[in-house]
């Protein structure tokens, strides 16, 4: 049974809520920011030649490492602010978490060696970067599917989680292709338009599967979405999501002609639309799961550390979070614009 929400004017009430919000913000930022460079890594194999691969690597070079800071922040908040849920979640997801960490390590090693390697060694590191990107993206989707199903271990739940892993990979490719449309030009830019088209509808399948499965696995979530008047208030979320998919599809159809112009319009539409879809999906999922950290088992207040400990951590977050946000904004402002030649 869901315990009564504690008094939000007391530290025991509002601190857990604040840390849940910080953790949610960190995970959303990670999925969007590291999502596009994971997508570029998955798409790297489809490039025609070494020059195109160099351009793709150069487009994410100043950002990819810092993007993973948000994952560290999100998991760190889960550990220190919600230790009970941390143990349950990572215990249930031990194998996909281990796979993700090994894949991210492989990506890091491959990236640093690739940019300094001789030409005859670059294909090896390209393959390693691709494999690391695929495994990291798929494992994250598998973890998302497991979270939605409440960490059930039956065959149908495992199959659903595997499907969400594939769909999240497609969504990352959509983000990555949208990023390349903005950051590159010429033949590679046109290729990125085709890659985005190929990823769009598998992304839509993933959104639809999560939208159906989430209320299916929990009567409480079904009631939250489909009782009146909540249904009317929440209707803009699916409607806007459908509208964004239609907008991206229309933009990708028109972009080849637009890119032939001296100053093409709409190059940022696919990426911005994909970010909007992720944001709407996050809002819908957060509404569905709140206040649970583990579906039907542990709420944010049940999992939270002692208020005294949370208050100490809160002061640290007040200092650290603006620094991370400021650094992220600054780095994107400095390195914005078309990717330049990759040189060492």
Rounded to an integer in angstroms, the radius of gyration calculated over CA atoms is 21 Å
| Percent helix range | over 70%
Low-pLDDT segments, ≥5 res: none
What is the overall silhouette? globular
Order of helices and strands: HHHHHHHHHHHHHEEHH
Mean pLDDT: 90
- Major pleated sheet: 2 strands, antiparallel
Structure description:
- The protein is mostly helical.
- The chain has one domain.
- 78% of the residues lie in helices and 1% in strands.
- The protein has 15 helices and 2 strands.
- It has helices spanning 11-43, 50-60, 64-67, 69-81, 83-92, 94-114, 122-148, 155-183, 186-217, 219-226, 230-234, 236-258, 269-289, 300-303, 307-334; strands at 292-294, 298-299.
- A two-stranded antiparallel sheet has the order 1-2.
- The longest helix has 33 residues, at 11-43.
SSE inventory with pairings:
Blueprint: H1 11-43, H2 50-60, H3 64-67, H4 69-81, H5 83-92, H6 94-114, H7 122-148, H8 155-183, H9 186-217, H10 219-226, H11 230-234, H12 236-258, H13 269-289, E1 292-294, E2 298-299, H14 300-303, H15 307-334
Antiparallel strand pairs: 1-2
Helix pairs in contact: 1-4, 1-7, 1-8, 1-13, 1-15, 4-5, 4-15, 6-7, 7-8, 8-9, 8-13, 9-10, 9-12, 9-13, 12-13
Key features of this structure:
mainly alpha, 344 residues, two-stranded antiparallel ribbon, globular
Quickly describe the structure.
By secondary structure, the chain is mainly alpha-helical. It is built from 15 helices and 2 strands. A hairpin with a 3-residue loop joins strand 1 and strand 2.
